[in-house]
Amino acid sequence: MFFASDNGSGAAPEIIAALTRANDGYARSYGADPIMTRVKWLIRTLFEAPEAEVYLVATGTAANALSIAMLTPPWAAVFGHGEAHVATDECGAPEFFSAGAKLIPVAGDHGKITPATLTAALSRVGVSGVHGVQRGMLTLTNVTEAGTVYTPAEIAALTALARSLGLPCHLDGARFANALVATGATPAEMTWKAGIDVLSLGGTKNGCLGVEAVVLFDPAKAWEFELRRKRAGHLFSKHRYLSAQMEAYLTDGLWLDLARRANAMGARLVQGLAQVPDARLLHPAPANMLFPAWPKGTNARAEARGAIYYAMPAPEGMEGARLVASWSTTGEDVDALLAALKP
To answer: Which pTM value belongs to this model?
Structure first.
């Protein structure tokens, strides 16, 4: 009954097998391995982006922070949802790697920025000349930190506002595969066709041991990213172990299969919660992460019965939780949790 995070799952067998194969013999270091050549081809093909440049790092924080630093100068603002991972869970890394760019929280129900809230935020920044930070860039998260999902059309509406002011756009896709499965969109439709310039493509939360890809749809800043990655200490010498994970992840649709499993277990949780007395969802839950609220005492009862998840704020008189299903969550796991929640 482990529902604390999809980070808590093991790596998929296909990923472990790929690492074992990559461990045989010798390979060139720092990304010059032949597996990385195949990774680039896979991503360019899947995203319908033959000119895209692709770089691997080991953590989502590195992918996001280095991408943001590349896209905005230190005197500019990064517009993102107030609850986005880059704003609340990365220990100031975007500000650090950008040498001081200011994160501007943008409001929006259920973890999603709207054109109205983004317009309001954009109108407040960059209007005081040299005395204030300038408008820098937009960053979005899909799946959001509330477990909700942007459609390509919703992303396009937001990036159009940013682009009207000449601002580049980044997508934090730590759970990108889950968002694709939830919407039925193609990788291209969710990214460059919707106005995204740089994608942080997550693998770690969806069955990899530890790898994220930074995909630059415009290769003009490729050399800068390479320099930033090296200077920040995120260029792996034994890079083939990152390459091997990403290749296996993207081959034969494994990444989407793993996400389908996680999303299916999320849907099973949603359906089962309807049978838990007085439980309700605080946000729509189309993917693998949900935020229920229920009567006080429920968390203690479930924890005593062996359930593991994060308690969260909830409306007055209730208590809340965050439940995250992973690729390895089973129907039996879900049913056991639902039983543990009931009086």
So the answer is: 0.97
